[in-house]
């Protein structure tokens, strides 16, 4: 596919952008669909988002954007309308033009993770799940797990009060949900989820002690790159089925593509 | 070439962008050079340039921009430094990051036209040239023809006073230059240049009466698309050598690529 003057633009806003998989994934999709469109990395430091937003949204040939760290919450006040999951989580990962003007956004990180987990053969319905990390991605994932009918959910975050706040938000939406803040202790859970950014950078500490994981427990990670994080490597060594960030990422991309009107994504 | 998270960005800001050849030309160049870079069309209405500029220049992975209609003059006050031709013409077609911060711009439309004309075998040195159109592109071309040692230059513009103002500006730089404002009358000139936008859109009037062109006079056009404008078609029918906007455009691209640090452009 060659970019010409008629090519429609899409992109992802984040910092850093070098490790992101979305550009390769979407451009491969556009090539497969023979669609005259390109998906670009836009590297934007946190404080620059309002100015960049004002500029990019004035490009008449730009049709949509994916938002990633550190912009998933910061973009919310810049939008003219929010989808239901964006309203619930206060975060957005995909934005598009509204008919009649302005921009609207929705959050697919959680549903993308859930979709990837299910396609990997590990449905969250009825399962006991430990989730470490309750930031923007973690919030979205917890809501998606609740919506999917998780059996019991334990939430942990190193920052004081964050897990408790998410428990309260989940209880408000699903009063009978079995959810509690707790230690990063895998025992008693069928699925362990890392929703922290730990593992993205070399030398990061592990999000939990790997020797507390038992063979047979499913370990899933949200980190897109490296695909096999130190946590997943340790889990695999202990005989655990693993689900990499790629599964979540492909799930997000499927849902974002549909939201952005990119039809035929899955052939 | 596949765009990924590490791909460096370049682009052209204009309106409309669909007819522009720069994206295809630069992306073919990047592919030839195996350079991890992409060149994008950015469609920006005239009044939106300041906001778009503030946004795009904050993209840390954007290295340079080409400016085209209607932004070649409007970008000048947004820059931190200007090259010599940009200062002379008050117009800019290429911008890049400065070492130490900020952005600088230079104007290559005129030198690109001159370069294309020479490569087509029609050196302006010593020649009598009629140039129709004294807008931003026309000003740059006239300065490049003066610098190249044109023998005699006749300038015409449909807007009152525009040709005369350009004559005065040229005389200030080259006091002994033989240049005058005059009618759009080819007689007595070896080379006829269309530097107006007439021919870009279907149904445009011709920039001059084609039946006043004599066989053997060289007719050159700045319009990038259609490559054979109605003026060039008429000139070719009358047995005139023609130089299309492609020659100018490839000349501009060579000079812009060098300014943007894209080495090895011509293999």
From TrEMBL, chains A, B:
InterPro entries: Aminoacid_DH-like_N_sf, NAD(P)-bd_dom_sf, Shikimate_DH-bd_N, Shikimate_DH_fam
Keyword annotations from UniProtKB, A to Z: Amino-acid biosynthesis, Aromatic amino acid biosynthesis, Oxidoreductase
Residues in Shikimate dehydrogenase substrate binding N-terminal domain copies: 12-95
The protein's annotated pathway: Metabolic intermediate biosynthesis; chorismate biosynthesis; chorismate from D-erythrose 4-phosphate and phosphoenolpyruvate: step 4/7
Pfam family of the protein (one): Shikimate_dh_N
UniProt-recorded name of the protein: Shikimate dehydrogenase
